[in-house]
Amino acid sequence: MENQSNLIIASDDFHKISTLLNAAQGELAELLQEELSRASVVPNEVLPADVVAMNSKVSFQDIDSGKELSVTLVYPHEANINENKVSVLAPVGSALIGLRVGQVINWPLPNGKEKRLKVVSVQK
């Protein structure tokens, strides 16, 4: 993964996601754990408004296709593709958590390809 700068994550989100990852396996879980390990963990109340957090509605652009999508980032048991609710353990969810508006990340996909995603907006 390649990020423009460090990730920022609220302490509650960090602890809940870490607990999920302790039970998860596979390359995606390892990638997300790696991202979390380099994140700046901040108290919930000081998380900047433009940072993707759990339950944020985030609009992002697939830089290669130019397509823009909006999803709400949720925990796995709340995921519902029909409601555009994406799990933090899904490839896109793992890529977006902790990014700020304007940041770009190159995120590897299970098929060996890579997605370049740019955060366009965040709503809490």
From TrEMBL:
<keyword id="KW-0418">Kinase</keyword>
<protein>
    <submittedName>
        <fullName>Nucleoside diphosphate kinase regulator</fullName>
    </submittedName>
</protein>
<dbReference type="InterPro" id="IPR001437">
    <property type="entry name" value="Tscrpt_elong_fac_GreA/B_C"/>
</dbReference>
<dbReference type="Pfam" id="PF01272">
    <property type="entry name" value="GreA_GreB"/>
</dbReference>
<dbReference type="InterPro" id="IPR036953">
    <property type="entry name" value="GreA/GreB_C_sf"/>
</dbReference>
<dbReference type="GO" id="GO:0016301">
    <property type="term" value="F:kinase activity"/>
</dbReference>
<dbReference type="InterPro" id="IPR023459">
    <property type="entry name" value="Tscrpt_elong_fac_GreA/B_fam"/>
</dbReference>
<feature type="domain" description="Transcription elongation factor GreA/GreB C-terminal">
    <location>
        <begin position="48"/>
        <end position="123"/>
    </location>
</feature>
<keyword id="KW-0808">Transferase</keyword>
